[in-house]
Amino acid sequence: MSNTIRHGLLHQSLCRPTTAEHQSKTNSPGVSINALFQASPAKQGTIQLSKSLICTKFRENNLKVPKTDIIKGRLMVAAVPRAVLTTDPASELSRKCNLDGNSELKIGVSTHNQGKGFQIDIQVTNICDSLVLHWGGVSYEKKDWVLPSCRPDGTNLYKNRALRSPFSKSGSDSLLKIEINDPQIQAIEFLILDEARNKWFKDNGDNFRVQLVGRDKQIAVESVPEDLVQTQAYLRWERKGKQMYTPEKEKEEYEAARAELLDEIARGASVEEIRARLTKSDDKSTTKDSNVPKSKSKIPDDLVQIQAYIRWEKAGKPNYSPDLQLKEFEEARKELQAELDKGSSLDEIRKKIVKGEIQTKVSKQLEKKRYFTVERIQRKERDFMQLLNKYTAKSVKEKVSVPPQSPTAVELFLKAKGEQDGGTILNKLFFKLGDKELRVIVTKLSGQMKIYLATDLKSPLALHWALSRKAGEWVTPPPSLMPQGSVSLDKACETQFAESYYGEPSCQVQCLEIEIGEENFVGMPFVLLSGGNWIKNSGSDFYIDFAIGPKKVKKDAGDGKGTAKALLDKIAEMESEAQKSFMHRFNIASDLVEWTKDAGELGLAGIFVWMRFMATRQLIWNKNYNVKPREISQAQDRLTDLLQTAYKSDPQYREILRMILSTVGRGGEGDVGQRIRDEILVIQSKNDCKGGMMEQWHQKLHNNTSPDDVVICQALIDYIKSDLDINTYWKTLNSNGITKERLLSYDRAIRSEPDFRRDQKDGLLRDLEHYMRSLKAVHSGADLESAISNCLGYSAKGQGFMVGVQINPVPGLPSLLPGLLQFIVDHVEEKNVEPLLEGLVEAREELRPLLLNSHDRLKDLLFLDIALDSMVRTATERGYEKLNDAGPEKIMYIITLVLENLALSSDNNEDLVYCLKGWNHALRMSRSRDDYWALFAKSVLDRTRLALSSKAELYHQILQPSAEYLGSLLGVDLQDVEIFTEEIIRSGSAASLSQLLNRFDPILRKKANLGSWQIISPVETAGYVVVVDELLSVQNKTYRQPTILVAKIVKGEEEIPDGTVAVLTPDMPDVLSHVSVRARNSKVCFATCFDPNILSDLQAKEGKLLSLKPTSADVVYSEVKDGELLNTSLTNMEEDGSSPSLTLVRKQFCGIYAISSEEFTSEMVGAKSRNIAYLKGKVPSWVGIPTSVALPFGVFEKVLSESSNQAVADTLQSMKKRLGEGEFSALGEIRRAVLQLVAPPQLVQELKSKMQSSGMPWPGDEGEQRWDQAWMAIKKVWASKWNERAYFSTRKVKLDHEYLCMAVLVQEIINADYAFVIHTTNPSSGDSSEIYAEVVRGLGETLVGAYPGRALSFVCKKSDLNSPKLLGYPSKPIGLFIRRSIIFRSDSNGEDLEGYAGAGLYDSVPMDEEDKIVLDYSSDPLIIDGDFRHSILSSIARAGSAIEELYGSPQDIEGVVRDGKIYVVQTRPQM
Question: Could you give the CA distance from residue 190 to residue 206 in angstroms, rounded to a whole number?
Fold first, then answer.
């Protein structure tokens, strides 16, 4: 052992020997760059213990290195060092690096002016034409940048601290040339600014730097000794925390060290002075060794290690950091040296400290505890945008081509029978009989059981049936139970079906009714006899289960809508064949994978659902069919090879393909599959256990191996380790779903328990652990240990049958990956899961490039990635308890790790990636003690929840229809079908992330002083609690008593139902959304509840009468008795019921199709148009007002009356009649009819003239198609008069819908950076001294429409408009952006009436469709730049105050921000 310790821990070198010859001192260091920063790596494919280095040295120069953080001999890297470009004056040198996507930065440097000056050429490829170089010179005598007098054309001075020079364009490249003649400038530093996107490009978070060395320094360059460069590189590495560098970064770091020495020489330092400085630094770095006597080398290292172990054990076995480990070693050495100094000999010391089996104990403890390994890796600094997966999502609905089918006559017949019976339906069964069907229902009423059978078979039919007291047996029914005309046979009975007719039109149905009564039977087996032919259920007997709460309750298959129906039908047809064995199932699945080419994602979803049913034992694994394990593994190989091919060719389906692979298992490589059968024989023979349970298991394995065998093997291992405690055996089996009944159900049943002798334990444990590897290699797709072994390779060195088993390592693995995998193996069971999570995620990051490219062993890499992903979930759940006492920063960091892991597993992960960037920004804010860090983190948490919700909804949309349809065809448990998608989500890392968010939410709310509620409409009230899923589903309902709605989902555009006095929701509608405005106008209490416990309590009070008393940040509620209902609630309801009808005046066509803003009057347009015209010229000059024209009232009616639109007019008349009769589906038909209107030529001409004379672009100038788009947008505005929300809203206030007229306000769209809504009186508090506003990225539709997430919100006192107070950061994931275009806004005479706010009911339609962009708030200046945010919010507040002052009353204002300028697009009185 001492030899192992000495070489493994004390004398491993930091540098491996180099064979590269020193050729050029300038360009080739004397020692390999890799040699400087890495030790000899462990052989690829071998898992070894990590070794920490105690003392190492640079081989060539004897530089002592006191301590290192090394895993597998490699330094762990957390950040990439700043690159420094050194220049050789003899030639033009260049550096290239990637900036952004396909964009590349190239830098070239050359001398000019006879070597006294420099020319720097900077080129950026493939990027926009708005780049600026932000730069300055570096002088070693000055702290700040030096600004040279010779500057490129167009250079501007920036705050007297830097220069900004614009690039010039040359094709797709941007170029800039800089000349430096100032001798005091030794380097230049710069950043690149993309002004169009307000995006900075840096060199790994630092300035780019170009070092300048002239010809007069060339001799100095050549004379810098390589040992000094190497020493300087080491000191840099030590200063940076001893990180792990990639080979490329090692080289870059080495050259940076050389550049630093060149800097010193350029400043006049001599080589001797540099050497003296470095030697002094070295002395400091090794001072900790200076006190150790020289005689310490006499003490053998194995004794030092044992003494260190004893010290560690006495200290309570703490988990030492690398620094403390080193310190402990030296303290142990000092203690032994002290013994030597007192006169003790080494032999006496050895006898004293090596007692009993202490040496073996130390060795075992090292293996188990990894006492001398690093505690955690140092993660690389990564650009999270590299994780981005973006594929064009194809709508699931587009793939659905199966038309809905009406219920069959048989189905309707049995439904009627069940309703007529009136009993509880115990079972429903459906069987396909070719192109016909047989349906069965079992009912029970007052203890009497009845069976109804019905089929659409035409030929005469007999039921050959029996009863069972236990499943599978045939017992002749008692004569009292036989229907009339039945014939009793041996162990059976035969009964003829009766002919009946049912349905419209009438269809023939053959039916039979059997009354079982209260007899003690459990089921009924049967077959059918028709025309002398027996009809069976796929070769087996039909069987009806009578059990109450039956295991398999069939759900009607339905029409397969939302599925790849043809594929699922084929799967159901082949299931009886697939049940024979795994070999059959996998081969059938391989054949069916071809079907997925046309069905796309839905086809793969069908395969996954089928494989998942198999993996969860919902389907029969083996039906008495003898198959060799080798044949199973070959079938698995075939299927996984096909899935691997699909993974390469169809990247948009990679997520679902990973899910399929995880259910299938890896399959054997080489002869591993056959070894399952062979090895069990050898185990039995070697360990003398040929009978009993082991023989029964052997027969089961011989007949058909399955994933259950992995569990059985583990149960045997646990049984042996527990000193043959049989309870441990059963505990392992039962916890993995294997019961005694399941063991007995195998074709080769396992009836006995293991009964090993103690002398068999060691041999069996060794052999079964080896055998487990073979079982997992075939059956487990997510087993970490076997996945690592399969990729790194292994050669089993056991005895007997295991000799010669070898799996080759995957070639081309990243150099850091083996060490990371070893780190994971070392830490996989530790309670402190943070280092393990770091290692798991870092390993996946290292693995990712291989998964994105073609690789011969891709599926092995995929199974490794799946196993790492699975372990992240396991580790996260194990770490929940530790997080109870963790601080916010640690919790946020764990969240980033789990979220990064989820992003690595997800297709179309853009939202997740931006959430990840948001969390990292929140961490930076917290570490910098930013006052708003918790508020920002809360917005990121809310957005992450939305992202998880969207992912769950997508899973449900894609998977659940296939689960329900296929589950019904295959007779899968109804409960398992119903929770299918839920279980998929719960088993993934998304569920772990959701749990973390739930734990962190209350902490954040407390830190941000948010409380448990956000009060949107503070109204004190009382009512009866009604719980609903969606407010939308009840918006047209009328409640007859005061009602408090607790609604899970509130999107923002809903109406509030009549009779509602409060809406409480966990959802987060904007305070200025339509539903929020409605609540305040209607005096309805409206609040968001953030606390799930409070929400659960409210839901539990459904049906009870509650009193609600909102405060500024809370809702106090309590139960009251029916007689104590608050007068305010009753009064409000009575007022609502007796409110007078609002009166509208029908507007007439004025004879003009289009008018300018100067012509806007109340007879021509609504308040929206008039207000915007009024503002023009009256608001401050820094507030922009868009140019407007309008189609006045009456134009729609005039167009409708044209002869060319007679058919549309007739349709509308008919539909309005149906609408008046209460047929509300006519609303949609009216809207569709309006879209068929043809534009009169005069309308086109007048609108064109008005738009052009007002300075607005005319769409028709861009082609006829552009005018068609504009005309369609106008018609959509008119059609919105008949949208459901508007129609029912006007009905509630008894407004005459026929008198509602619609003008159309036409404005040029301002392509907004941000949009805002202002209420000049705070709507939540009613404080008129305070402005409240919300801001979103892009267009304002995400703010006023039903887009999920919150806007940025703030308040501002009117007395101090320069001090906005931020209330919340945005969490909306989507921003809307549009090209230069026109918007057509609704402007009816039914908006902003006294006591009725009709605004927002009708549509405003842009001519062009908006682009939905997933937002990255971590780069949004409104979020990250405090000065910019303060400027914008103050400007918004000042604009609101100015407009309110202009009108003299509170205003509801909409506007946008473009390039820092405020535009107001409309204002109305605040309701």
Answer: 9
